[in-house]
Design brief:
This protein has a 9-stranded mixed β-sheet, with helices on both faces. The protein is built from 10 helices and 9 strands. The termini are far apart. It folds into 2 domains: 24-245, Rossmann fold (3-Layer(aba) Sandwich), CATH 3.40.50; 253-308, no CATH class. By secondary structure, it is an alpha/beta fold. The protein is globular and about 45 Å long. The protein binds S-adenosylmethionine. The site of S-adenosylmethionine (SAM) has 22 residues, from helix 2, strand 2 and helix 3. It comes from Kitasatospora indigofera. This is Class I SAM-dependent methyltransferase.
Amino acid sequence: MSADPHSMNPVRPTPRRLDDVPGWFWPVDQLLFTRILDGQTDAGTTGDLLELGTYLGRSAILIGRHRQAGESFTICDLFDSDAPDAANADEMSMSYRKTLTRQAFEANYLAFHEELPTVVQAPTSVLQDGRITAESCRFVHIDASHLYEHVAGDVQVARAALGKNGVVVFDDYRSAHTPGTAAAVWEAVFSHGLRPVCLSPEKFYGTWGDPLVVQEMLLRHDWTGEGWDLCRDTLAGVEVLRLSGNGINPSDPEAEAEAARPAPVRAVPRGPVPRPRSVGRRLALDLLPPVATRAVRRRLQAARDRRTD
Ligand SMILES: C[S@@+](CC[C@H](N)C(=O)[O-])C[C@H]1O[C@@H](n2cnc3c(N)ncnc32)[C@H](O)[C@@H]1O
């Protein structure tokens, strides 16, 4: 995260694709979030979703796409409220104040989803009051203040919130301008039992459960075959995956073209629609707004029907 990349253009049209939403959530992390959240659902793991630091919704929109029936999604952000201390206020005015309003976040989110998540407009420290049920979450994304004192508090929120083998993700764990996040994350590893699972250039993925469960989920995919760089490192005796590079682009032009075409006239058969198989299509379905997603699903189903006619 650096200075707001969109501050010169505060009036924006309704986003159609995730990449139209300003933010700092890059393809490798979009894919890692998708694979972890899908992997949990495929394994029958249920739990709530939580994001600390949402900005205009780029990461929240993708996370919200994975919420299953019976699960909640809560986001916490200051938006246009006052920061709780001077250092946090400086951070806000340097990076977010020019464009960030709760209204702008909500408009972006509703371009992709029919309903908003539970919104807590407050400093993330309020979540230490127990309003997030202990061990209720399967996925927590921490991307709010990058100051040590705040991130150290967010670590404890995530630790209390996560259930068995739940995954926490920290943004900016190694950027030159965010030493506070680095300090809090590695303190969590060496003093508070957090176990690294995977590292991307921007984000640290960890768990207080068994890292192998999450790593096995990730290693089911052919990352190198899809063009990503996958390495294994050993940190203090623990094996950690490291992913980077420019693999398959989640913005799939084929799916976009499909979405733009009118839906077929024939009736869509009742019953569950099988999950799309290709990585590009699956990601595109995650990233497109609901109307476009429905159109893609209709086209995929129609193509399958034609094949079985
Ligand atoms: C880097 S941005 C989040 C980016 C977003 N996750 C994305 O991928 O686009 C950080 C966000 O944290 C919020 N924030 C900063 N300090 C905070 C605090 N103490 N409590 C809650 N939110 C805070 C800011 O308002 C900003 O929206």
